[in-house]
Design a protein that fits this description.
Shape: globular
CATH topology of the domain at 61-142 and 185-265: Zincin-like
Strand order of the largest sheet: 1-2-4-3
Low-confidence stretches: none
Distance between the termini: 28 Å
Number of helices: 9
Number of strands: 4
Mean pLDDT: 87
Structural class: mainly alpha
Helix content: 55-70%
Order of helices and strands: HEHEEEHHHHHHH
CATH architecture of the domain at 61-142 and 185-265: 2-Layer Sandwich
Oligomer: single chain
Radius of gyration: 19 Å
Length: 270
């Protein structure tokens, strides 16, 4: 956890410093000012835009008061067990079955659940999903996930923007810049983060079987009913939401379900 977040800060500081150096090299004093402004813009996007972008794109609505699924009570109870404030809970109007979490601090994180997940999972399965997502927030994985998502999306978005000027809908910059986006995500979000979080969530539940079973089920449902998501955000979800239809395999971030279950349960299939 600490190592991951250290890498995030090093990456942000290195990128900001690189913008200052490049600005000075190309434009001396004026270039330095431009580089400084770009560094400020980058940090603003990373810390204030990335989280809201995901919630907005997925049309997430805050869940308040009494809910039919008892998810707020689960979040409150397990947050207390983890020694952290209960994060905000959102629901997205999608029939796909998945969940995600965002937040730059465990003090102000957010959990998101699709309507399909809330309707199709049993209380026991939902509890395992809640535990898993809360552990990501408590471990501050969401900080690394959100930063890497925003930076990678900026790179891929630049490729799409540049390709829009090419004739005949040619794609030159997108294939060129997509691997850079993948490298940003992989440099910050390693498979070890998923394995460690799976284990922590199973310890919170005092049983590995409920989490293993729900991961197996969610993976299967994601393959049959994938979810359209913003670019470079698949690693925010409990399982890869795009299934086999993921448009850009360079940006695939989740370890295989076989490996996750082997690490968690000690055997596969379950």
């Amino acid at each position: 956890m600490t190592n991951t977040n250290t890498k995030v800060w090093v990456f942000i500081l290195s990128t900001s410093l690189a913008l200052l150096i490049l600005g000075y090299q190309f434009g001396e004093r004026l270039g330095l000012i431009i580089g400084f402004l770009l560094a400020l813009l980058l940090n603003f996007i990373v810390f204030f835009y990335g989280e809201n972008r995901v919630l907005f794109k997925l049309r997430a609505q805050r869940v308040k008061g009494q809910d039919a699924w008892g998810v707020l009570d689960m979040v409150e109870r397990m947050s207390h067990q983890l020694g952290m404030p209960a994060p905000a809970v959102f629901m997205t109007p999608h029939s796909s079955v998945n969940a995600f979490c965002v937040g730059h601090s465990w003090k102000n994180g957010s959990l998101g659940f699709t309507l399909g997940l809330l309707q199709k999972l049993s209380a026991k399965e939902l509890e395992a999903v809640v535990a898993h997502q809360l552990c990501h927030i408590r471990r501050l994985d969401t900080f690394a996930f959100s930063v890497s998502s925003t930076l990678a999306n900026s790179v891929v978005g630049l490729g799409q923007f540049l390709d829009s000027f090419l004739p005949y809908r040619l794609q030159f910059f997108m294939p060129l810049l997509s691997p850079i986006g993948w490298l940003i995500i992989k440099a910050v979000v390693g498979e070890k983060s998923f394995f460690e979080n799976d284990l922590m969530a199973s310890e919170l539940l005092n049983n590995r079987h409920p989490l293993g079973e729900v991961l197996w089920r969610l993976e299967g449902l994601a393959q049959t009913q994938p979810l359209e998501i913003p670019a470079c955000t698949s690693h925010l979800f409990i399982v890869n939401p795009e299934g086999f239809k993921q448009k850009n395999l360079f940006l695939k971030s989740h370890p295989s379900i076989e490996t996750r279950l082997q690490k968690l349960m000690g055997y596969y299939p379950i």
